[in-house]
Amino acid sequence: MTAAQAQFQLDQPSVADGAAIWRIARDSKVLDLNSSYSYLLWCRDFATTSAVARDETGEVAGFVTGYIRPERPGTLVVWQIAVDDAHRGHGLAGELLDALTAKVAAARQVTTVETTITPDNAASQALFLSFARRHGAEVERRVLFDAGLFPDDGHLPEELYRIGPLAPAA
Q1: Helix axis angle, 122-134 relative to 92-108, nearest 10°?
Q2: Of residues 79, 61, 57, 73, the one with CA closest to residue 110
Q3: What is the pLDDT of residue 141?
Q4: Residue segments in the chain with a per-residue pLDDT below the cut of 70
Q5: Cα distance from N-terminal residue to C-terminal residue, the chain
C-alpha cells in the first residue's frame, strides 16, 4: 500500500464535490479554469470516468476528470488532474490516475490514455511519463492544438500525449 492509498480514500465524484473540484483547479494556478457550473455538470455526467481523493475528514483532496472518446471507445481522455496544495508530495496524482484508469479499463476495455499538456507544465509531463512507465506503455507526443488556434489570450500549444497500449492489469 502506498502513502497515498493509506492516507486518502479514492471515490467517484458527486455533484456535491463540484465546488471543491473547482476550487482545487482554480488554486492550482496551472489548469485552465472552467466555470463552476461546468464542474457540477462534469460530476453529474462524467462521474464514472472521473475520481476524487478524500482526506480523513471526507474533504476532496484531489481529483481527476476524464471521458471516453466517442470515436475511439478504447481511449480514456484525461481532462484535468490536480491535488490540493496541502496534500501534494504524497504521490496522490499518480494514485488517482492509476485508479481511474484501472476502473475505467475494467468496465470499458480501455487500452489507451490521452491527455494534452502545455510545453511549460513540467509536473504534468512527469506525471504522465511516469504513468506510461508504470504501465509498460509507449508515449506518442505531437501538437494537437497550435497556439494560433486559441483566441488571442497567450495560450500555449496543447501537446497530445497518447499513452498505450497499456499493459494488462496483474
Answers
A1: 50
A2: 73
A3: 98
A4: 1-6, 169-170
A5: 15
What 3-state DSSP class applies to 12? coil
- Beta 72-83 vs 112-117: how paired, if at all? parallel
In the block, cell 509498460 appears at 136
Alpha helix (H) residue ranges in the chain: 3-7, 18-28, 36-45, 92-108, 122-134
pLDDT at 2 (0 to 100): 55
The grid cell for 19 is 465546488
- Per DSSP, 120 falls in state T
Q: Say what the pLDDT of residue 169 is.
A: 61
> Which letter does DSSP use for residue 127 in this model?
H
Per the confidence metrics, is the pTM higher than 0.85? yes
Cell of 15: 455533484
Q: What is the largest CA-CA distance in the chain?
A: 47
pLDDT recorded at residue 68: 97
